[in-house]
Amino acid sequence: MDAALEIIAEVGVSRLSMRELARRTGVSSGAPYRHFADLTDLLSALADEATTYLDRAHFEAGGRDSPLDRFRSMGVEFAVFAAEFPLHFRLMCDPGLASNQRFMAIQDHADARLEKAIAEALEAGQIDGDATAIALTARAAIYGLAHMIVDGHLGEVSPARAAELALAVTSVLGSGFVNPGRSDDR
Question: Are 148 and 83 in contact (CB under 8 A)?
Answer without folding.
Answer: no
